[in-house]
Amino acid sequence: MPPAFSAEEKTRITALLLETGHKLFTTQGLRKTSLEDLMAPTGVAKSSFYVFFDSKEDLYLELMIRQSSEVKRKVINGALLSADTPREGLRRFLRATLDELATNPLWRRLMTHPEEMQAVARKLDPTRVTAMADNPVTALNDYIDHHQGELIPADPQVIIGVLQCVLLVPMFAERLGDPALHHKILDLLIDFVAAGLTAQKE
After folding, report:
1. pLDDT in the model for residue 147
2. pTM across the whole model
């Protein structure tokens, strides 16, 4: 049976788990991160992990919840929803999201490995769903659904997949030739995709 921890110990170990989880999930992913890896810096037994989180997925979710409001503010409220037209909204969303992915390794991991968020969702405690109300992924889905009449007639998940393809481009930046041109290449690609997805309506 795991030992009892004082409030101070719980605070310290929780902080260590969040810090270690952030580092390991972003570098080696959810599946390859073991409870031993997560608990090693705490100096306590592996079985004690469950005093703090129900599962690895629960820890991952907590990290996402802690960042989701700020990410949504930047890429949804400050970009996607700030434009007068879906075309300009998609342009702003893609640019803002690329900026966020360049500086936020956890969200970059989520975007490049969506199966990890699916694994988290499968174990999601329904009582915590409300904590993800500011999830930018959900907000994007809602936006695409709401603006279907203003976008090309395609499955909303296909449209989201096209947007995700643009966000994956920086992973292959070394194949784009002269690094000085990367920004211009991405800008032009964003313009093409935003125009293409709204071509019939704007």
Report:
1. 93
2. 0.75
